């Protein structure tokens, strides 16, 4: 007969796939609350774990790092946005219309998914979260969608000549900035509707069309 204390060494039963998914869901929800309630400076593994009601070890067993955890909060909706944009690009032959459609998709996403937009595209990375590995522009599908539309516009004689990476970055910076400004400068009574981004899209298209 085994000693009375033998049960102390018995391994815990393995979690089912459903249980693992539930724990990951609980940790993601806690991470989202911590970030939204306290901002970047409030992010820590211990605080997220406490909010989720799990140990720090459990958090890291389901997410390898805080960076991986926070990226998981917006990975799915951003992938859905990218798939939508790729389909729109394939269905739109005119380069000008294609670029306009892609820029509007980004603006529409920011309005329909405000929380995800703030996390994925306006996320201010705390120092305690490791910086992600940068992706070359040539390898980023999102950037290349816009670049391809501008390149096609150049080939068709519709858009100005110039370095494609710089032109693409300029257009994206302008439209993104029109979305970010009312959020980053919340103390000012700026127009937070889609009016200004729409004006910026029109301005960028007009700028590209001028040689």
By DSSP, the count of extended strands is: 0
Poorly predicted residue ranges: none
Tell me, briefly, the overall form: elongated
Strand content: under 5%
The percentage helix is: 55-70%
Going by helix content, strand content and strand pairing, the class is mainly alpha
In DSSP terms, counting alpha (H) and pi (I) runs of 4 or more, how many helices? 9
Q: Could you tell me the radius of gyration in angstroms?
A: 23 Å
Distance between the terminal alpha carbons, to the nearest Å? 90 Å
What does this structure look like?
Helix 4 packs across helix 6 (114-121), helix 5 (95-112) packs antiparallel against helix 9 and helix 8 (164-184) packs antiparallel against helix 9 (195-209). The longest helix is centred in the middle third of the chain and has 26 residues, at 66-91. Helix content is 66%, strand content 0%. It has 211 residues and is mostly helical. The protein starts with 16 loop residues before the first helix and ends with a helix. The model has no long low-confidence stretch (mean pLDDT 88).
